[in-house]
Design brief:
Blueprint (H helix, E strand, L loop, with lengths): L5 H11 L1 H19 L12 E5 L8 H12 L5 E5 L10 E2 L6 H4 L1 H9 L4 E4 L3 H11 L5 E5 L11 E7 L27 E5 L7 H11 L6 E9 L3 E2 L13 E6 L5 H10 L2 E6 L8 H12 L6 E6 H7 L3 H4 L4 E4 L1 E5 L4 H20 L1
Parallel strand pairs: 1-5, 1-6, 2-4, 2-5, 6-7, 7-8, 10-11, 10-12, 12-13
Antiparallel strand pairs: 3-4, 8-14, 9-13
Helix pairs in contact: 5-10
């Protein structure tokens, strides 16, 4: 009997769902038309609002880009982030506090809250309502970063940063469910900055030029290219404790959408890799943690560690009582700009804030 490969089956299913995608696309286009014609209104605010997002579902590097902006700005400004709080167990607006957990605000906001305790982290499905609530709770806020909000038209951000993945450019995609687009390709015209993420570190100038031509940016739109860089793994409960991967037997625990680059990186640097994969945004339970400990205990190697992502770490850290004696390490990632363009990108962000502040004064 002939069995179709899973990727071929997915292609067939997506082809059959094409009519649904056409209907979905028409609804999106109508919605955008109403906003563009100002029939539906977008709110603006009298402080710099930076939006980080994409046009598709899936991981394009929004979380590490938000973290990049936080690191860039937090020394000189009082920064706050606002996210929807995907898959959290709460509803409405919520400002993170001392006892907040990932179940309260979601994985990525909890990651911001844990990594940057000096900033304000809030969640709220309706950003236009959540921003005034955030400013009421934290009136000292000088900059708001909207995480994953490019398609959220009720707020008109002062600076829109659009991310698109090197291996799946939005210009080559189509509306859900036949494709991955949740917004129209023409919405890219609202971006001030377009970043092609997850590029090969050795991307050539010619490749850069070809991709830029395909994106066809408008006059004034800046296009940057970045790749995912990995830092040295640090202990889940003692971040100053580092561990080199070389020679280690790694049990990789992931609950993220795209694991390809992560697995390739660890395979290139560790002695051996085993994967224990969970669904994206998996909410780890007590039994899950006991199961992964048992799996780790069954590994015969003497030099063995568990490695997980930053997003998964915020949930696993809730099980300190049973994981404290287990060598669990977190693999941090960050955006690294190609072609020595980091200074130009940084300057663009800082100039936007300075110009906004000067305009408000005048």
């Amino acid at each position: 009997m002939l069995f179709m490969r899973s990727d071929a089956i997915i292609k067939v299913i997506r082809y059959l769902l094409f009519p649904v995608s056409v209907i979905y696309g028409l609804v999106v286009l109508l919605r955008n038309f109403l906003y563009n014609k100002k029939i539906l209104r977008s709110a603006t605010f009298n402080l710099p609002v930076i939006c980080v997002g994409n046009l598709s579902v899936g991981g394009t590097g929004k979380t590490p880009m938000t973290e990049y902006l936080i690191r860039l700005l937090k020394k000189d400004y009082l920064v706050a982030t606002l996210s929807r709080g995907y898959k959290r167990k709460t509803k409405g607006y919520l400002l993170a506090g001392k006892n907040t957990t990932a179940r309260d605000i979601g994985d990525e906001p909890m990651q911001f809250h844990t990594s940057f305790p000096e900033i304000r982290v809030a969640v709220g499905e309706q950003r236009a309502e959540a921003i005034p609530a955030l400013l009421l709770d934290a009136p000292e806020t000088e900059i708001i970063i909207l995480d994953d909000a490019f398609q959220h038209r009720p707020v008109n951000a002062g600076l829109n940063i659009l991310l698109t993945e090197f291996g799946n450019l939005y210009v080559d995609d189509f509306f859900l469910p036949a494709g991955n687009l949740r917004d129209a390709k023409t919405s890219a015209q609202r971006a001030h900055i377009i970043i092609v993420t997850k590029c090969p570190p050795d991307l050539s100038v010619r490749q850069k030029e070809k991709i830029t031509e395909r994106l066809n940016p408008l006059p004034g739109q800046q296009v940057f290219f970045s790749h995912i860089a990995y830092n040295e793994p640090c202990h889940l409960f003692a971040r100053d404790e580092k561990k080199k991967l070389s020679g280690s037997h790694v049990l990789l625990i992931t609950g993220i959408a795209n694991t390809g680059k992560l697995i390739s990186y660890i395979q290139a640097h560790a002695g051996h890799v085993e994967l224990l994969r969970y669904s994206d945004h998996h909410d780890f339970t007590h039994n899950d943690v006991l199961a992964l400990i048992n799996r780790f205990s069954s590994v015969a190697a003497t030099d063995k560690i568990i490695v997980t992502t930053e997003k998964d770490a915020v949930k696993l850290s809730n099980f300190k009582d049973i994981l404290m004696g287990v060598p669990v390490y977190v693999l941090p990632i960050h955006h690294a700009f190609l072609f020595d363009e980091q200074p130009e990108f940084d300057a663009t962000i800082l100039n936007f804030i300075k110009e906004f502040s000067a305009k408000e004064v005048n």
